[in-house]
Amino acid sequence: MKKKILVLGGGPCGLSAAWELSKYGYDVTVIEKEAKVGGLCITNEYKGYRFDLGGHRFISKNKELVENVCRIMGDELLTSHRKSVILLKGKTFDYPLSARDIFLKMDLWTNVKAFTSYLIAVFTKIVFRKKDMSFEDWIVNRFGLTLYNLFFGPYTEKLWGISPKLISSDWASQRISLLNLKDVLFRLLKLKKGTPRTYAKGYFYPKKGIGQMFDIMSEEITRMGGKIVLNAEVSGINVNNNVVESVCYVQRGVTRSIDCDTIISTIPLSGLVKAFPGRLTENVINHASVLKFRAVRFLNILVDQSDISDNTWMYVSEGKYIMTRIQEPRRRSPFSAPEGKTSVMLEIPCNENDETWSCPEETLLKRCLADLKELGIDIQDKVTGYFTTSVTHGYPVYSLDYSMHRQKLFDFLACYENLITCGRQGTFRYIFMDTAMEMGIAAAQTLMLDNLCKKEDVQSMRSEKELLETSSITA
Ligand SMILES: Cc1cc2nc3c(=O)[nH]c(=O)nc-3n(C[C@H](O)[C@H](O)[C@H](O)COP(=O)(O)OP(=O)(O)OC[C@H]3O[C@@H](n4cnc5c(N)ncnc54)[C@H](O)[C@@H]3O)c2cc1C
Prior knowledge:
This protein has about 475 residues and is α/β, with parallel strands linked by helices. Among the domains are: about 5-40 and about 60-80 and about 210-290 and about 400-470, FAD/NAD(P)-binding domain (3-Layer(bba) Sandwich), CATH 3.50.50.60; about 95-190, no CATH class. The protein is built from 17 helices and 19 strands. The strands form five sheets. A seven-stranded mixed sheet has the order 7-6-15-16-17-14-18, sandwiched between helices. Strands 9-2-1-13-19 form a five-stranded parallel sheet. Strand 15 and strand 16 (about 325) form a beta hairpin. Residues about 195-200 and about 465-475 have low confidence and may be disordered. It binds flavin-adenine dinucleotide (FAD). Flavin-adenine dinucleotide binds near residues 14, 266, 423, 424 and 432. Flavin-adenine dinucleotide binds near residues 31, 56, 271, 423 and 433.
């Protein structure tokens, strides 16, 4: 008899695990808390407009994954190109930052300060062998204090809601492309030739929003015999010795239980641990409560004009503006808005239940339209509708000691041999959709080979400190 496998969470990771397992005829059931699958990769439709939860795009290094996605999507998958910029002090800078662009657009005094502080940073790093503990250290040690204060510090503080001194350097090493001042200097001195490192610009995007990818995947899962239970929130894990035997979930107010041989969990790590009530020590509860997520509110605005700009998204660095990014969904797919119209989506980071999270939609709209106007985007008279969406688990907050707390939770779960936790929430890692999908597939494969001792390999996939976008397969 085939094993009965439960997948907790129907986002990209959980669905990919179920997709792989159902291909091989396993008895697989996905338990998803929301009314539809997709997790952070859902697309919401409203009056003929489509909005993701934050702008998403699909890029991957994994040829097989890309081929499989292309196969199930067929003609529904577009190949798009991004153009993105940084808005700062009334000017528009290239993204990723380029030394040349900064040099041309900043005044002489700022350039002198930036270059001097860069030289000081290089000197101190070499002479004093300064270590990177925090995000701030990582940036200042590489770019100098002036560029940090202009581009990185205020943006990072707005995104995470805490001082960059309290954010682990891990986040920077995975996310920031080097502004290659050294490279530029070497080229000027003719000491280096060749093409500078660039970001991949091409990416895949479904016609009807990123959520379409996971709608199609879930149809394929059910066609192959897999089951997807929606509106079902996991509330308890039942164990016998060190074996998980069943899972409880609440569906429309009724608690139900479902037996299993193995579990692939993609729900938030702390939530999973807390679902083992009888076994928790105070210590474990403390570690779980330290791992926090940053929430995001999205303001989706319907605009009665054909275009806002040719940028896919614009970063807003300064702390005085409420949003971190301005997205124009039409730039990803023309099917994101009706013919001749466009839309704007603003990403507004916050904490669950804080002032921004609870702000009435109308008040938030007013504030955002005023911010947009100051930034040179005056759409006040063109708004034909708006609504907000939100996520509680937008970004895992990499506090300075997050990895120690996370490891304690992995240690707690290690004795349950028939359970693996993976995905963005399940490993508390800032990973992209393609890595989440790869993790789900790898978890399914290790399980099929009865090799759950390989859990760590799955959980640490793609943790190399390199920017994914530099060498990925795109359109
Ligand atoms: C603003 C923003 C922009 C992004 N842009 C990109 C991008 O351009 N490209 C890219 O590749 N990635 C992007 N990402 C990251 C991408 O969204 C994630 O990597 C991906 O969604 C992770 O998939 P996952 O399945 O691991 O987690 P999730 O998508 O979070 O899915 C977890 C699922 O578990 C469910 N769940 C939680 N608790 C329970 C419970 N108790 N019971 C049952 N179900 C539960 C949730 O409802 C959810 O469906 C972005 C993320 C954000 C926030």
